[in-house]
Design goal:
It contains no helices and ten strands. It is an all-beta fold and 89 residues long. The protein has a single domain, classed as Tumour Suppressor Smad4 (Sandwich), CATH 2.60.200.60. Strands 2-5-6-9 form a four-stranded antiparallel sheet, with no helix packed on it. Strands 1-10 form a two-stranded antiparallel ribbon. A two-stranded antiparallel sheet has the order 3-4. A hairpin with a 3-residue loop joins β5 and β6. The chain is globular and about 30 Å long.
Amino acid sequence: MSGRKVTRIGDSCSHGATVITGENIRTVDGKKVARRGDLVNCPLHGVNQIISTISGPVDTTTQKTSFLGSVAACGAIILTGSDLTSLDR
């Protein structure tokens, strides 16, 4: 599979964080797709927004899609994503 793995609700991050919000319209592997502005729940720093995405021109509604390696405001890095769905930058 080429491209970057798309992240979704339930994906894991460093700091022990988990993605907790996503888009209401689009799903990947039956889970809502995470975007810049969606939230992670970090046990070290509480709830924080995904602030940095490694997304190119892939928009969902008005927000950029989040991929493996995207970063939350607390510094948590998204570590998991879909094994079945990836998108090119």
